[in-house]
Amino acid sequence: MNTENNDLSPIEAMTNAITDIGLPEPIKKNFFKAMGQLCTSAIEVPAAYLDGIAAERRAETHARIKLIEKSANQIAAQMEFDPEYAKLAVKKFGQKIIREQVNLDLITSKATKDIQISFQEKEDTTSQSEEKTISDDWLNTFEKEASQKSTEEMQTLFARILAGEIKSPESYSIKALKTLGDLNSEVANLFAKFCSCCMVLQVPSTNNSSHIIDARICSLGGNAGSNNLQSYGFSFSNLNLLHEYGLIIPDYNSWMNYHMAILLNQPILPFSISKRYWALIPTPEAKEKIELKITGVALSQVGKELYSIVDTIINDQYISSLSDYFNTLDLKLTDITENLRA
To answer: Measured between alpha carbons, how far is residue 327 from residues 108, 266, 273, 324 in Å?
Structure first.
């Protein structure tokens, strides 16, 4: 390890990491704008990128410090409270600010690492010609929601959203931020489990991400609202919980035509399940299908946005049942991930 880096502050280390990988200018500008607002205020970053944001941040924090350092006796006199009570209130206020700032610093550090890794893996940036800037409203909402998250699990999710928004502004809505902020560990884990079983139709978009056309759990020929997915962890009550948080749509028996995933068609659009790609190969007995209605429980728009930040794991039990279901339709569920990589 380079001992010279031991004396660097966290923000200096993050700045060096981003500078060294040669980010495109629009992304670099978004990075410094986000860091200027979210990180600890004693930050020195290139002023050309910050456009005065760092100075404003320092002034804002200086004002907070002055408030905290006011005489507790004076506050008590103004509010007609006992001086000892005022001292405790000021101390608690200071601790709250510090706790929230620590949360933000940890999240921004994780986001920096995510950006660094994605570009070290030579992520394509040829489509980043359009300069988009993270909106102030988005950053304000992010700061409010993320500052309350002290668990590593939730900090990781917020870091992924921040990294994605820095690379491609307008990828995540303010509603998605507020929804993520409302989630507890139970709902977050249930959502990740749900996403692990989703059939996802998506096409590449111009911002190096993927536009999700549809994402749903197939109900395997049954009715999800009648607990036919309960054995996979998606009981009616669990589905209602996901709907309560706005992650899935209210119609548990909606459908989407997945005809384009059948291998006979050209061009084919495979679907993904837990980051692996699948196609449907007709059996000799199959007739040409004009429609392939996949009925089940679909992600909402917010659910689609948050899908990209959760960790998914193949559910072998569900994949086996899905394969059996397609067999009844004279279609063979086939993993073509390696074919696409070749």
So the answer is: 47, 22, 18, 5
Amino acid at 104: L
pLDDT score recorded for residue 309: 95
Six-digit token string for 207: 């911002």
175-188 confidence digits (pLDDT tens): 999 999 999 989 99
| pTM, entire model | 0.79
Question: Span 12-40, mean pLDDT?
Answer: 79
Task: Of 106, 100, 108, give the one whose Cα is nearest residue 30.
Answer: 108
CA distances in angstroms from 73 to 70, 89, 92, 94, listed in the order given: 9, 12, 16, 16
pLDDT at residue number 1: 40
CA distance 201 to 302: 16
Residue in this structure with the two tokens 């009648």, named with its chain if needed = 226
Q: What percent of the chain has pLDDT over 90?
A: 55
CB 64 within 8 A of CB 32: no
Taking the C-alpha atoms of residue 279 and residue 336, their distance in angstroms, rounded to an integer, is 7
Instruction: Write out the chain in H/E/C secondary structure.
Output: CCHHHHHCCHHHHHHHHHHHCCCCHHHHHHHHHHHHHHCCCCCCCCHHHHCCHHHHHHHHHHHHHHHHHCCHHHHHHHHCCCHHHHHHHHHHHHHHHHHHHHHHHHHHHHHHHHHHHHHHCCCCCCCCCCCCCCCHHHHHHHHHHHCCCCCHHHHHHHHHHHHHHHHCCCCCCHHHHHHHHHCCHHHHHHHHHHHHCCEEEEEECCCCCEEEEEEEEECCCCCHHHCCCHHHCCCHHHHHHHHHCCCECCCCCEEEECHHHECCCCCCCCEEECCEEEEEEECCCCCCCCCCEEEEEEECHHHHHHHCCCCCCCCHHHHHHHHHHHHHCCEEEEECHHHHHC
